[in-house]
Amino acid sequence: MQPNTLLDAILDEAGISHAGLAAHVNQAGKSRGLALRYEHTAVSRWLKGQRPRGQVPDLICEVLAARLQRPVTLDDIGLGVPGVPAAPAGSATCTLSGFVERATALWRSDEQQRPHLLGAPAVTGTPAVMPVWEWENRPRTSTSPAADATPSARPTSR
Question: Structure pTM?
Answer without folding.
Answer: 0.53
